[in-house]
């Protein structure tokens, strides 16, 4: 089957080929029992919910926020989850990072940070990139693993990334929510989660995100958060006429505490830019893992 998008055309692997590397580790995102293949679908062995596999992409996303794991929040990221479901929308988003000078420079800095952090953890067998977007920062991940899992709640982003991949590393593609990662506990060597946390408006969502990332990681997690104490956030808070919406932030102490409760240590936490950005890259390593 072929996928055509933005002038690029690439062969999309058959579903069986893309899932073979992780099928033993897949779990139902709703009930967390193993998934089994039934024809072209995956089926939860307990709840019997069916998840289609189409165009080489397992459709495993659960939409919703805290009502899907606890109780309804006053505000949530549910509306944000609907973005970039279409390939054309995803293409527009990714073109912005390719064509705008500041975004290109920011991406270059992000790639450098990721390579620096990933090299400290050595080569991995299985590495998850969630949200993967259209593959903007996937290059360093593909370089450091035997199998790259590209996952995003937006189907358009996953399909766009499949049509524009620039590496030979074997990969799996799926739709998935970072609140319900469809993988067993400690199924992966590492997880990378870039520029999602600051889109989540509630503390419950941000904590749930980090908890899920740590749950499926056997060795390490790299995730970004917007630091409450960053220069950029402090300036935004003290400027009385700044009408930009507030950032959804975390403190490094909060990240470290949530990680410690699950057996991880915050090893490094560089800024994307100390003065120009409040984004920080947290490297969380399981105690005893190196």
Give an overview of the whole structure.
It is a single chain. The chain has 290 residues and is an alpha/beta fold. It has one domain: Rossmann fold (3-Layer(aba) Sandwich), CATH 3.40.50.150. 29% of the residues lie in helices and 25% in strands. The strands form 2 sheets. It has an 11-stranded mixed sheet with strand order 3-4-5-6-9-8-7-10-11-13-12. A two-stranded antiparallel ribbon has the order 1-2. The N and C termini lie far apart (42 Å). The N terminus is likely disordered.
Helix content: 25-40%
Helix/strand order, N-terminal first: EEHEEEEHHEHEHEEHEHHEE
CATH architecture: 3-Layer(aba) Sandwich
CATH superfamily: Vaccinia Virus protein VP39
Structural class: alpha/beta
Q: Which strands sit side by side, in order, in the main sheet?
A: 3-4-5-6-9-8-7-10-11-13-12
Please report the number of helical segments.
8
C-alpha-based Rg, rounded: 18 Å
Uncertain segments are 1-16
Determine the strand fraction and express it as a percent band.
Answer: 15-25%
What does this entry show, briefly?
The protein is an alpha/beta fold and 290 residues long. It has helices spanning 15-19, 87-99, 101-119, 138-143, 155-163, 203-216, 231-238, 252-260; strands at 2-5, 8-11, 35-38, 41-44, 50-54, 57-59, 124-129, 145-152, 171-175, 188-193, 217-226, 264-268, 279-286.
């Amino acid at each position: 089957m072929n996928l055509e998008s933005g002038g690029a055309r690439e062969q999309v692997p058959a579903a069986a080929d893309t899932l073979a590397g992780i099928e033993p580790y897949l779990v139902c995102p709703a009930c967390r029992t193993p998934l089994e293949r039934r024809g072209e679908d995956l089926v939860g062995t307990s709840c019997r919910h069916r998840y289609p596999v189409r165009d080489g992409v397992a459709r495993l996303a659960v939409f919703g926020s805290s009502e899907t794991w606890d109780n309804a929040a006053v505000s949530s990221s549910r509306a944000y989850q609907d973005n970039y479901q279409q390939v054309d929308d995803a293409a527009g988003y990714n073109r912005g990072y390719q064509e705008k000078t500041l975004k290109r420079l920011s991406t270059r800095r992000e790639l450098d940070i990721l390579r620096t952090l990933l090299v400290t953890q050595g080569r991995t067998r299985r590495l998850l990139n969630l949200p993967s977007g259209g593959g903007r920062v996937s290059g360093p991940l593909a370089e450091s693993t035997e199998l790259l899992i590209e996952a995003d709640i937006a189907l358009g982003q996953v399909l766009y990334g499949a049509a524009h991949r620039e590496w030979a590393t074997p990969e799996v593609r799926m739709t998935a929510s970072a609140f319900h990662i469809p993988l067993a506990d400690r199924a992966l060597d590492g997880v990378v989660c870039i520029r999602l946390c600051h889109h989540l408006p509630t503390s419950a969502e941000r904590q749930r995100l980090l908890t899920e990332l740590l749950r499926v990681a056997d060795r390490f997690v790299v995730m970004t958060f917007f630091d409450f104490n960053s220069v950029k956030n402090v300036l935004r808070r003290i400027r009385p006429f700044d009408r930009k919406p507030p950032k959804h932030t975390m403190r490094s102490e909060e990240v470290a505490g949530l990680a410690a409760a699950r057996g991880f240590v915050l090893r490094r936490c560089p800024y994307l830019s100390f003065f120009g950005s409040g984004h920080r890259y947290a490297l969380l390593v399981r105690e005893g893992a190196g």
